[in-house]
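note to self: dont lose this again. the chain is below, predicted strucutre after it. 346 aa total, dont forget to put it in the shared folder this time
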Amino acid sequence: MLTLGLETSCDETSASVTDGRKVLSNIVSSSVHLHKRYGGVVPEIASRFHVEYIIEVLSRSLKDSRKSLKDIRLIAVTNGPGLVGALLTGISLAKSIGYSLDKPFIGVNHILAHLYSSFLNEDDKPDFPFIGLVVSGGHTALFYCEAIGIQRLLGSTQDDAVGEAYDKVAKILGLGYPGGPVIDQRAKRGHRNAAISFPKSYLGKDSLDFSFSGVKTAVLYYVNNLRNAKYERRTTGLRQAVINDICYAFQEAALDVLVEKVIRASEFTKSKRVVIGGGVAANSRLRERMVELAVNSAMKIHFPELKYCMDNAAMIGYLGEALYKKGARSDLYLSAEPNLEVVNVK
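---
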């Protein structure tokens, strides 16, 4: 069943052709270079980028897959959560293709697509049931998954998502946007410094929710105190070695929370399988920490291949097809849902 996937939830314009778990094409065009000067995604710029490039991305995806629109059996499109203007671009295209060619289409929850993105791996595919951890710029959430589309939300962020905290800390340190990759690299050159210690919020001993606003604010206060004490030369700002050590301390504090919550979820659900998805799943130190956890606790940890960590249409196409085969349907009344929530299905 050939499925056309469309993803336009934020700053990546993506189209794919999939056949179940087989990815025939997966084209991603990012507008991140346009947002760098602003330190974050500007919704209007993202929306205009989608409108300008989505047809080109679609054409490239069909060409790479050696298929045409007439070969497509199903269209799967992200309908939330995300930026409303960006979402509408993909949804409008999906409706247009579906209506004109009399093809069915289905709306897909972006968070759940990240949750199940590891099923696109050529090797190391997960088995059910498992604990699912979604970590991205806009979302941090824990799930218990029994089958495709049958999941229960265990906990979610109460303020900043972990990826958002990375971006804000990078801005505080003058490292630019996006913050995740640069902090990951700078932390590798940093060292554990007893003088730099940031708080970790666990929200109670039994909580499976997350909070990363505190650690971000602690970094801001620490940096401001350094500057106010004239510890660093104002003409050049913070010394690079100090920035590296701050990146190391921040990252370890944030990842300590993620690891602890996975351990708690495992104890709560009695599951030893963990599947991680989302943009922060590409973080090299998170992968190291989870491998260490697997060795020490006999857990089985699954990550998506790096190309499926970031926003992409292949994960939308795969999940859309799987849900369609289980009876899910959408119609022309499908709308953009910027705050779309995951519905618990048991």
